[in-house]
């Protein structure tokens, strides 16, 4: 019986390593989740430190710069009220992190609350000790859309 318990414990231990995220992946995931909250709170001061000055933001209605995205958030012309994150995948390539979030976004757009399913692609690059977002792209998807890990 002890032998089986030992083997079972060993299997669980090794499985946890297989599915564990690296410290950098955990840091990026937290940063991505924080970003959604900062967007909901319209906290442009925190977002300004996160967004690279040359970043691009791709939405259903257009692509714009960091300055324009911050203006949109600050004025509330798009208010990202809540991002219900259903799934996240992260890939590290050198000092670049790519994050895919599968979300149901509740946003107030032109005075109307709407809920839209998206896969959001975020690209971050480490500059010194800080991560900077280089790109954020919203891709409209069906509810059954899945991110392959």
Automatic annotation (TrEMBL):
Residues annotated as transmembrane: none
Domain annotation DUF4440: ranges: 30-133
Keywords: Signal
UniProt superkingdom: Bacteria
Gene3D superfamilies hit by this protein: 3.10.450.50
InterPro entries in UniProt: DUF4440, NTF2-like_dom_sf
UniProt xrefs under SUPFAM superfamilies: NTF2-like
Segment forming the signal sequence: 1-20
Name this protein carries in UniProt: DUF4440 domain-containing protein
Lineage, top ranks: Bacteria, Pseudomonadati, Bacteroidota, Cytophagia, Cytophagales
């Amino acid at each position: 019986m002890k032998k089986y318990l030992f083997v079972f414990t060993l299997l669980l231990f090794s499985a946890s390593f297989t599915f564990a995220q690296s410290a950098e992946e955990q840091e990026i995931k937290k940063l991505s989740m924080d970003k959604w909250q900062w967007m909901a709170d319209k906290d442009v001061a925190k977002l300004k430190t996160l967004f690279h000055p040359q970043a691009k933001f791709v939405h259903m209605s257009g692509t714009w710069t960091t300055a324009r995205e911050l203006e949109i958030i600050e004025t509330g012309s798009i208010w990202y009220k809540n991002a219900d994150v259903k799934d996240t995948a992260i890939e590290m390539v050198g000092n670049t992190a790519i994050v895919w979030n599968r979300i149901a976004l509740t946003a107030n757009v032109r005075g109307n609350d709407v809920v839209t399913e998206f896969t959001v692609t975020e690209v971050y690059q480490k500059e010194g000790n800080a991560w900077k977002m280089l790109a954020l792209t919203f891709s409209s998807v069906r509810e059954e859309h899945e991110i392959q890990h």
